[in-house]
Amino acid sequence: MATNATTSAPFASFFQLIQRTLWALRQFAPSRQAPEAIQRTQQERLRALLAQARAGSAFYREKFRHLPEDCTDLQAFPITTKAEMMAHFDAVVTDPAVTRAGVEGFMSDAANAGRLFLGKYAVAHTSGSQGQPALIVQNQQVLDLLYAFQLTRGQAAGAGSAVGRLVQTVRRLLRPTRVAVLSSAQGFFPSACVWQHLPRYLHWCMRFLFVPANDPRLLDKLNEFSPSVLTAMPSTLELLALNDEELHLPRLERLITCSEPLTAKTRERLRHAFGVPVLDNYACGECLFLSNGCPTAPGAHLNSDWAILEVVDAHNQPVPPGQPGHKVLLTNLANTVQPFIRYELGDGVTMATEPCGCGSRLPRLQTIRGRTEDVFWLHIAQGYRALLEYPFQHAFDPLREVREWQAVQVERNHLIIRLESIPGTVVDVEAARRRLEERLRTTGWPLAELHLTLEAVPNLTPDEPTTKFRHMVSHTGPPADLDTEHMDLQAESTGSPCAGE
Ligand SMILES: [Zn+2]
C-alpha cells in the first residue's frame, strides 16, 4: 500500500486507521523476501521517484535533460553533491510552498522545534562536517517508514512463517513497543525533530519517550516509562550502565546505538550491563530510515526496498561487496518533496558478502567507516576514545555570533578551538567554553583529562590542498598504539548522525 502525505490529517474512518496500522506492521515482511523481489519493488519506486523529480523539480529536470524520459538505469544519472543541493534548494524541492528562506525562517524560531513546517513537513539541518549544513525536508512517508521500521525491523524474529507473523502482529497490538530515545541534541537536528512526530495510527502499538540525555530526571523518567527499546549514543548508554542500581528496566528487549563509533568492547559491555542485544544503526539526516542494526552481527541491514546505497570508489565506480568503498551514493525512494538521487556522502562502507544469520535477507552493511578525518582519538583513563564533531556542533551552533568554528587536535588531549564571529559581533569565548564543557560532560568526557584552548579568530580558512573547509583537523592522527580492538571499532564505526546528532 502506498503511503501519502495525508496520514497525519484526521482519519476519515476507523477503517483507514486499521489499514495504516496494518501497513506499518507489514513492513517486517520485505526483510524476509528474496533479493529479486526486493529489487523489483526498488525499481518500481525508483521509476516513480524519477518521474516525480522530473515533473516537480526544476533542478532535476535540467540535470536529467540529456537522458531519455523512460531511462531508469540509475548509473546513467549524474551525481548530486550537498553543495549543489544547497545552492539550488528552491529548485530542488518539488513543493513550491517550500523555500530555503521559509525553512530557515521557521527553524530560526526555537519554539517551532517539534512542529511540522507548513503543517506537514519535518524540517532539519544536518551537521556541517563538509563546510556547510544541509537543509532537509522530510515528508510524511519518510516519517511513516522511520517508525514502521523501528517497530518491525532490526530484530531476530523467528522463521517468519505466516502464522508466526500473525502471532507477532497480535502481540504487538496487545503489548505496544515502548521506545525511549535519549537525545544529546535539541532543536532542528534530524533525529531530534523527527522523533516527535509519531503517526497517530501507531499510537496503539507504539509508545514514545523522547528525552534529553542530560535531563536531571533521566533515570526516573526511564524507570517510569519502562522502555522495550532504548536508543542513544554509546557513550550515553555507558553512563547509564554506571547507574544500573537505580535503573529498573524489566521490559527492555534491545538497545540501539547511533552517532558515535561503537567499539566491540563497548558493545559487549553494554550487552552485559543491560542483558539485551545491542544494535548499531547507520543512518544520515538525508535518509533517517536507511538501515536497522543487526541483532546478531556487526553492522546494519539496509532498507533496500526504500533506499538505494551505491558503494563506489573515488571515481564513482561501483565497488563489489566485501571491499571497502571510498564513498556512497544515496537515493532515498520515499522522499518526494526533496528528492535525493545519487546524493554523495563521504562514508566508506563495506557490504557483507554472506547471508546474515539473523534471518534478514536485506543487504548488510558489514563495516561502516565514517569520515575518519572528522574523528579525534583522545586518551582517557579507560583507553582511547573517539571524539566526533557533535559536541562542538551542539555547543556552538545555537550561538548566533559564531559564524564558523574549527577544532584542531595539536596534541593527543590538547585541542585548540577557534571561533570566527559574524562581522559586527564579538564571540563570548567564555560562554562558548561553558557550553562546550557542558556538552562534553553530558556525553561522558572527563574534563579534567582534556586540555581545551578556545580562541576568537578574525576568520577561518579552508584546507590548502583540498580547498574544503574542515571543522576537525588533527595534527596527531590516530595513535600508533591504538589497540587491535580499537582499530576494529574504527572500521565498524558509524560516522553518521542519528539520535545523538
Ligand atoms: Zn543480520
UniProtKB/TrEMBL annotation:
<keyword id="KW-0436">Ligase</keyword>
<protein>
    <submittedName>
        <fullName>Phenylacetate-coenzyme A ligase PaaK-like adenylate-forming protein</fullName>
    </submittedName>
</protein>
<feature type="region of interest" description="Disordered">
    <location>
        <begin position="473"/>
        <end position="501"/>
    </location>
</feature>
<dbReference type="InterPro" id="IPR053158">
    <property type="entry name" value="CapK_Type1_Caps_Biosynth"/>
</dbReference>
<feature type="domain" description="AMP-dependent synthetase/ligase">
    <location>
        <begin position="123"/>
        <end position="325"/>
    </location>
</feature>
<dbReference type="InterPro" id="IPR042099">
    <property type="entry name" value="ANL_N_sf"/>
</dbReference>
<dbReference type="GO" id="GO:0016874">
    <property type="term" value="F:ligase activity"/>
</dbReference>
<dbReference type="InterPro" id="IPR000873">
    <property type="entry name" value="AMP-dep_synth/lig_dom"/>
</dbReference>
<feature type="compositionally biased region" description="Polar residues">
    <location>
        <begin position="491"/>
        <end position="501"/>
    </location>
</feature>
<dbReference type="Pfam" id="PF00501">
    <property type="entry name" value="AMP-binding"/>
</dbReference>
